Amino acid sequence: MKPFIPLALAALCLPGLPAAAQEAFDPAAAVDAEFDHTARIAQQIWDFAELGYLEQSSSSLLQSEIEAEGFTVKAGVADIPTAFIAEWGHGGPVIGVLAEFDALPGITQSAEPTRDPLASKHAGHACGHNLFGAGSLTTAIVLKRWLEATGTPGRIRLYGTPAEEGGSGKVYMTRAGLFDDADFVLDWHPGDRNAAPSSSSLANRSAKFRFHGISSHASSAPENGRSALDGVEAMNMMVNMMREHTSMDTRIHYAITDGASAPNVVPDFAEVFYYVRHSDPDEVRALWPRIEGAAKGAAMGTGTTVEWEIIHGNNPTRPVPTLQRRMTQILEQIGGISYSAEEQAWARTLRESLGDDAPPITAAETVAPYAVLTNYGSTDVGDVSSAVPTVSVRTATWVPGTSAHSWQAVAASGMSIGFKGASHAAKAMVLMGVELYSDAELREQAKAEFTELLGPDYQYESLLGDRKPPLDYRQ
């Protein structure tokens, strides 16, 4: 690998670009200049808090902002109304930037550091996707301005990717071939630290199992009823026994999303929502018939019927170490995130809810060293990273020690600590993008490594089959 060039010298040393052109545009300073804009967009999407495939206002906002910058926008791609692609430029490498913007159901919180649910909302940005969308928008805008100012050939493309939370929006976009002509993709995610490890996620598949029975009076005529809820409970019991006979990396979760509404009525409908995960997508495929078998057996034993619908499925992420090491070096050069006195006071109050083991709030000022690790979550970025070399980064948008999908994450995502993290991510991605546009040797090395990681016989296959996007899965 070529030695990393310190950022202080990068503007003078990028290969193939005239020095005068490089000196005329400072990409890191350009990101800083966009901070208020980044924060405003993040705040608006936080206020919208729209669920997967229902993000009309959030998607429209991002589209209007990027179109105003001169990008050509194509909306409604991959049969998803809220998905879009925005592009600017010509020739050269094609670099995509992923932008998410969906919220999570059932968790709300104001931007206060103590528990304060908002009764007026039914969802919240507990995974910080409002920050994700805003930071990625800034990345695309600044890279476009850099390409324009330096005369560098290349195209910059912003992918508006809905429904990451259980809807697999990027999988449908990948399946539709929307990443086939991209050379690289830049990705980031909110978090409680600054890091760019080679992180492999778990493959997963989910489905809603719907049991149908016969309703009846539960006391005066129970013999006439067949309980759909019994079917759900029987299935859950069998799957729970199955856990003993799966490999260590297996993760299975479920939620009863529709049970009985009155104890004196035998329910004629019940639904349970299942997730199955494993580091190897082939293991997910092997486990799945056993889940289906439990559903069939439960229906047979309870005198009910069952049907199921695959909702989402993701391949594991495939990090390219060359790119992740370079992103770590970029983070080390730009450093961590400092809080103002007001932000420190806010963070100290929130930290009281995180427990005694939470790291100090000064951990946001540090950068984690490069590492190779397994992330036991799942993401549809995995499918993108199976189609095109993808480089990812996490920044401290939340108070250190904060877990994703928590009220603490919602709170920080709606105030300046989150906005700083989004801007920090944009700076790292912009600088990574500048290197990829400028350094042919880096591009060649990363692509060769990506091809080797996939192997000579690799063929992309989604875990969704040929189903259409479940546009109503949050309704």
UniProtKB/TrEMBL annotation:
GO terms for cellular component: cytoplasm. Residues 206-296 form the Peptidase M20 dimerisation domain. It comes from the Bacteria. Residues 1-21 form the signal peptide. Keywords: Hydrolase, Signal. Pfam families: M20_dimer, Peptidase_M20. GO terms for biological process: folic acid catabolic process. One of its GO terms (molecular function) is dipeptidase activity. The keyword Transcription regulation does not apply. The keyword Signal applies. This is Amidohydrolase. It comes from Aurantiacibacter xanthus. The lineage of its organism: Bacteria, Pseudomonadati, Pseudomonadota, Alphaproteobacteria, Sphingomonadales.
